[in-house]
Design goal:
single chain; alpha/beta; Rossmann fold; 2 domains; 10 helices; 5 strands; 40% helix; binds zinc ion
Length: 221
Amino acid sequence: MFRDFISLIFPQNCINCQQSLNSEEKFLCISCKIDLPFTNDFQNKENDLFKKFSFESKIKSAGAYMYFYHGGVAQKLLYHLKYHGKKEIGFILGKWLALRLSQNRYDLVIPVPLHKSKLRKRTFNQSAEIALGVAEHVNAEINTELIERIISTKSQTRKSKVERWANMQNVYSKIGVDLSGKSILVVDDVITTGATVGMLCERLVEANVESIHIAAVARGK
Ligand SMILES: [Zn+2]
């Protein structure tokens, strides 16, 4: 029990394979790090994720660092980040993600916001922790207040399909400032359908941004 207690404070095992870590390794052992299910999104502009956003010409690129599988390593990492409050995982994932980006000039990094009820429950936004790591690497300003999530997924599930669709238009608050000429990097933890990120991008377009780039830690295949 004592050992469990100690390892809870100082996680010494790989989140993926449970093997003990050396002092150089963080959260993942080196072999699990090398074996991550990487995408080649950042080498292939016309990747499957980018295709989801082809409706909006201001979205210039989209990519995820790795694939998300149920029971896979991305799920384990993000679980520890979200539910065990291991914010450092977010920061490190953000740095890894930033190293893949083909462009390095952004005016603003915007993490996909959580609805305030979720934020209250979880106390922090996992995407904001990832964005901190990204922003530091690309040397850009991060803004978590520009846009707010005003409709939660929970309130959405109680509605009919038609109501949900109508509601989608207002998932995020309108942006009160003009962002003319700005290049924005939107950072998310996992992208599945891309529907909500798409709505966020619509708000950015309304605020006259110059270009939008989307980067996520993981995505569905
Ligand atoms: Zn491992």
